[in-house]
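User: Here's a protein and a ligand (flavin-adenine dinucleotide). What would the complex look like?
Assistant: Let me lay out the input and then the predicted complex.
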Amino acid sequence: MEDSKNTKYDFIIIGSGFGGAVSALRLAEKGYKVLVIEKGKFFKPDDFPKNNRQLTRWLWWPALKMFGIQKLTFLRHISVMSGVGVGGGSLVYANTLPKPKSAFFNQGSWQGLDDWENKLAPFYEQAWHMLGAAENPYLAPADLALKELAEEMNKAFRPTKVSVFFGKANQVYSDPYFEGAGPERSGCNFCGACMTGCRYNAKNSLDKNYLYLAQALGVTILAEHEVIDVLPHGKHGEKGYEVIFKKSTSYFSGPKKIRTKGVIFAGGVLGTVPLLLKLKKKHLPLLSDQVGQMVRTNNESLIFNTVYKGLYLDKMSEGIAIGSIMTFDENSHIEPVRYGKGSSIWGALVVPVINEPDFWRRNLKLIYKILKTLPVRLKLLWFHDFASNSPVLLFMQHLDSTIQLKRGRFGLKSGLKKGETNPTAFIPDALDFARKFSKHIKAIPQVLFTESVSGIPSTAHILGGACMGKDIQSGVIDKNHKVFNYEQMYVFDGSMISANPGVNPSLTITAITEYGMHKIPPKHKKQNH
Ligand SMILES: Cc1cc2nc3c(=O)[nH]c(=O)nc-3n(C[C@H](O)[C@H](O)[C@H](O)COP(=O)(O)OP(=O)(O)OC[C@H]3O[C@@H](n4cnc5c(N)ncnc54)[C@H](O)[C@@H]3O)c2cc1C
Ligand code: SF4
């Protein structure tokens, strides 16, 4: 094994998404020597796919030599979309930054450990500032359709707050956010393609704020390398750690190791949780038994609404990826989501919605519905661009449901404990509203085949699995994010989220990491103690 003897870091951060990026900048500001290891690639605007039919540039599937930004994971109880690359999920996300309601701060395993709502309030403001949040100035046809329905149903509707730079379309500006210390931006042109990576330098992904500023302070980012093991020196890591990693974009490269005093797990739920599960079996046996427990989603439902005629035909890619949000009831929100023109791959993967709990009856009904709608569906696929006609209704709820992640013979698997309710593919309110929305815009409601065929829901917001607790029996980390039983070892990413925020979680991951990092003392001060 290759040994980088000369370099010794204060912290190695595993993953460069929201938690990892905030940690990198704040630790560097406190004087620590930091290395970020990221398994995905470093992307420039031109590297992103023109649309999601360019599979090798869009998908992350290393076994097939696909090194894009979008990872798809299919488990028994959930199908998960997540991001890969320097900037993690920010490369592929829809930029939306809502703050959760009060309930989030007072439930789950972090409940009562701190006065979360009040303590976090200034860090939400800081997170909005750092991510370059601004209100969406343009309501596109899909947003206006939602607004009309919201008015009809007397529901609150508002434009989203998003991490996008709204200067003049395609015009280049010097750094508009950090008094010149950040990179140039260009104004958004409302092409709707944010979720395949912004090719116009208008999206404030993490490589343009936290990671850019961290690099300027000397943080090293090692892209295309995956951490596969962590060995403690001393029973509790009190003498530091050895981090083992290997090249992720090549079949033929041996493992390498680097010494560090501290480790931060920031690989997102699908990076951190499988790694911790593996380490608990190998070199970190003192980790809590709670690793992999209390995994949540936003209880989402994703319903495509494919327009077949009328005013809205071919207009649904206009705008930013998520331009508006409607409050459905005290527990639920709805957002219309869009892909850019030409991103039609989902068209091949969707089928009509069938709300029927019994597997066989559901699939018989599905076959009947597919045959019945076949002429319209074929006409749509043949003559029209799927993305330009298929806004996706994202329905999210505060209500809680949890699953477990475990190590199986063939990799990660999901499970349910006795008494646990898993997220469901069929949320009646979501289906009713999608039918209403579809009728309004003259569309057919459709879902991913995994939902109608097997009843497995999909999510882009997987959370938990390394939650906070008051002790090692109730959580993996304490209220300061320190891993129970190990020194200088922390978790800062979606897996630390210990209740259901009920809305898109990136702002919350950013704000909670800001607060956690604020509590870590500067390097020199720590040494004086
Ligand atoms: C299509 C889509 C749209 C979304 N839209 C929104 C939205 O509008 N608003 C919102 O709030 N959220 C949105 N999300 C969710 C959001 O992207 C995630 O919640 C967020 O990125 C999670 O942040 P994180 O800090 O947990 O880590 P991530 O952002 O997931 O980053 C983790 C990083 O760690 C890397 N990594 C993992 N394991 C290892 C390892 N062993 N070694 C090295 N590197 C590793 C991964 O490659 C990845 O880059 C969206 C997600 C998707 C997929
Ligand atoms: S709408 Fe287009 S230009 Fe604007 S942020 Fe999204 S991808 Fe970039």
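Summary: The pocket of iron/sulfur cluster (ligand 2) is lined by residues 164, 188-194, 198, 200, 202-203, 320 (CB under 6 Å).
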